[in-house]
Amino acid sequence: MISYKQANLEEHWDAIIIGSGMGGLAAAALLSKHAGKRVLVLERHYVAGGYTHTFQRHGYEWDVGLHYIGQVLDPGSYVRKAFDYLTDANLTWNPMPDVYDRIMVGDQSYDFVTGVERFRERMKGYFPKESRAVDRYIAAVQSAVKAGNLYFAEKVIPPFLAGVAGGILRAPFLRWAKQTTAEVLDRLTDNQELKGVLAGQWGDYGLPPKQSSFGIHAIIASHYFDGAAYPVGGAGRIAETIAPIIAQRGARSW
After folding, report:
1. Rounded to an integer, what distance in angstroms lies between the CA atom of residue 108 and that of residue 159?
2. Which of the four CATH numbers 3.50.50.60, 3.10.20.30, 1.10.3430.10, 3.30.870.10 does domain 4-66+232-253 have?
3. Are 68 and 220 in contact (CB under 8 A)?
4. Is the backbone of residue 190 left (phi > 0), alpha (psi -120 to 50) or beta?
5. According to CATH, where is 3.50.50.60 located in the chain?
6. Residue 251 to residue 142: CA distance in whole angstroms
7. For residue range 101-129, what is the model confidence (pLDDT) as tens digits?
8. From 11, 105, 138, 162, which residue has the greatest number of CB atoms within 10 Å?
């Protein structure tokens, strides 16, 4: 890449996107592929991809930000369909091991296994006296996610419809989102270790249970219920497979 000042660029573009992180690349690919726009992507770093890029040290490749991605092993999932559309299905995936997360509490480990029913039975095996709490937790997660579908649907319907029905569509999810993860878990059980295990993925979204929205926690937890995967070839392949889609329609990135 060279800097914008040194580049010989045309003066007229349909859209100029500053930043080549996943948001910028996805927007550029959609504008280019779906809307037929000529898009210029500007990036100050020498590598595109934001937190999906990698670097090498002493013969090893290191990821900057990508951990693992759920819902991409099912070709029918919205997440997989989005990646396939943005990359023309040129991004492939390797499934992670059956245990996609392991929560450590002292010397005790708790495995999160692929499949929501297997996860349910594994948690009940760890906490046999908390069977009802485990069932209620999974039900709460699924209820929040279902409500979230309506919340996000409101963002893509025509503005006049959103003005009429937006409040109704948002309300069910906001009831979950306005509660902290700790508040919901406190209603489900008094077992502190179980609460710690169920909230153990908070590092994925960055706020501890007393500060995080249960709505966000539920979306993340549900995202991994069916396991996780990693891009074949490393995290950098995400940007590498999206960039040609943008370039095919006369776009440029610098």
Report:
1. 51
2. 3.50.50.60
3. no
4. alpha
5. 4-66+232-253
6. 41
7. 999 999 999 999 999 999 999 999 999 99
8. 138
